């Protein structure tokens, strides 16, 4: 199978190439050229264990990988999860279910894609013989999940920049207490934007990029999207024929990667009633779905920090479908948006999507009311999914993080502080972090001195 860029100015590439590149050379995002029809295939997939389903699904796209190697990579990726079902479904009521996506090593749904990405990189290195240097900037969750997915991978060295003193103490421990020799958390003086800018500059230095085999793990990577489609399918199969066609998936949303991964299944013949895009007070997408205006927001830090975004980078993938695959128009819209910071769509409507937005004041209230009504504790991101749900409709809410990652929120809401043995164990370890000037030459030298040369 081949993958095309949303901007239509790069050649189509195979799966491995799309994964290695992340962003297409023309600045677009990769999408499958054609979609497999799953409508009859899924009958054979009922009752499969999570890793088996994941393999069957990915195998349709990763046609350039040897099946047994892919299978091994998938099994290895989910062996690090602490729950036997990987993504268990919890019944809160007849009309409301939760799918827990926080049983991976860093207790957030990003582990689903990043554990796999680490193993795919390893496969690629053994094929090409070329080492990879992973560079990224993080304000918290992505860095922790990326590091965890890449610990000890042969030929991979990881450099993650984060603003010193500006990520939560637990998130910093998740990045700095791994004990791994191929991981370099760089605590920089400055903001997340400073870190991000430096990373972008290094990526635009093509000779450096080639020399060290630079690659990114951000949420626009195709492998991340496809790995995430799997748990929607897993949930859908478990719903049973009666509920399948009238359950709406509710997805706490930031960069639009997660909910888009679910929606892609509808392009493959899977009938799903709808998707609720649940945002926090950074409501770029909620405004888009209600008014048709996509406009740059200013990030306001919230109690659900992994959804604090200014633009939703994966929206370009949906745009490609809205514009019927017309990449000339995708380029027009994206460049107008870049120049003016906004774009107004006439008659913006995409079948099956609805949206909501939750303020920071509401988050603790929702956590308390869900706890009272169902005896179930949700994290601040998942809480955003419980706004304005029609009690007569069926919903499946994706729980994107474990509540123990955000202890302060529960104290302030007058609730007992949730705990997790994985996080407790981190407290006994010694953090290792590095300091570096947040300037491209300094970071470049640091990378050259420390990257793997196996
Ligand atoms: C990253 C993240 C989100 C947002 O997911 P997107 O794919 O960016 O929409 C939601 N909740 C948690 C806990 C996250 O880490």
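^ structure tokens above, recovered residues below v
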């Amino acid at each position: 199978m081949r993958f095309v860029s949303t901007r239509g100015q790069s050649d189509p590439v195979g799966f491995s190439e799309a994964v290695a590149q992340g962003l297409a050379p023309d600045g677009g995002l990769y999408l499958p050229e054609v979609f497999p029809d799953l409508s009859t295939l899924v009958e054979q997939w009922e009752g499969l264990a999570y890793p088996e389903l994941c393999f069957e699904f990915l195998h349709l796209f990763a046609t350039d990988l040897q099946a047994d190697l892919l299978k091994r990579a998938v099994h290895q990726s989910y062996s690090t999860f602490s729950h036997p079902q990987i993504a268990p479904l919890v019944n809160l009521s007849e009309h409301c279910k939760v799918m827990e996506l926080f049983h991976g090593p860093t207790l957030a749904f990003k582990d689903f894609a990043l554990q796999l990405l680490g193993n795919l990189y390893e496969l690629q290195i053994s094929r090409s013989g070329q080492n990879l240097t992973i560079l990224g900037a993080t304000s918290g969750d992505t860095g922790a999940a990326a590091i965890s997915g890449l610990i000890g991978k042969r030929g991979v060295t990881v450099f993650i920049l984060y603003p010193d003193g500006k990520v939560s103490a637990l998130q910093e421990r998740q990045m700095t207490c791994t004990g791994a020799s191929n991981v370099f958390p760089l605590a920089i003086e400055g903001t997340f934007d400073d870190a991000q800018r430096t990373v972008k500059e290094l990526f635009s230095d093509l000779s450096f990029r080639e020399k060290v085999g630079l690659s990114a793990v951000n949420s626009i990577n195709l492998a991340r999207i496809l790995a995430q489609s799997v748990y929607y399918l897993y949930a859908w199969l478990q719903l049973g024929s009666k509920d399948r066609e009238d359950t709406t998936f509710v997805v706490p949303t930031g960069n639009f990667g997660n909910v888009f991964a679910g929606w892609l299944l509808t392009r493959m013949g899977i009938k799903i009633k709808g998707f609720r895009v649940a945002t926090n007070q950074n409501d770029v997408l909620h405004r888009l779905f209600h008014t048709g205006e996509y406009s740059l927001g200013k990030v306001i830090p919230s109690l659900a920090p992994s959804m604090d975004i200014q633009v939703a980078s994966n929206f370009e993938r949906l745009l490609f479908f809205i514009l019927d695959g017309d990449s000339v128009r995708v380029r027009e819209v994206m460049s107008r948006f870049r120049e003016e910071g906004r774009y107004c769509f006439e008659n913006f409507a995409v079948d099956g999507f609805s949206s909501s937005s939750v303020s920071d004041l509401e988050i603790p209230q929702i956590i308390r009311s869900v706890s009272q009504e169902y005896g179930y504790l949700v994290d601040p991101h998942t809480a955003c999914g419980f706004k304005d749900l029609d009690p007569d409709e069926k919903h499946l809410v994706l729980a994107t993080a474990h509540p123990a990652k955000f202890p302060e929120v529960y104290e302030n809401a007058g609730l007992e502080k949730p705990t997790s043995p994985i996080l407790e164990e981190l407290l006994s370890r010694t953090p290792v972090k590095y300091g570096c000037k947040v300037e491209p030459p300094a970071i470049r030298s640091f990378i050259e001195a420390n990257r793997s040369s196996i």
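Residues 226 and 261 are 6 Å apart (CA to CA).
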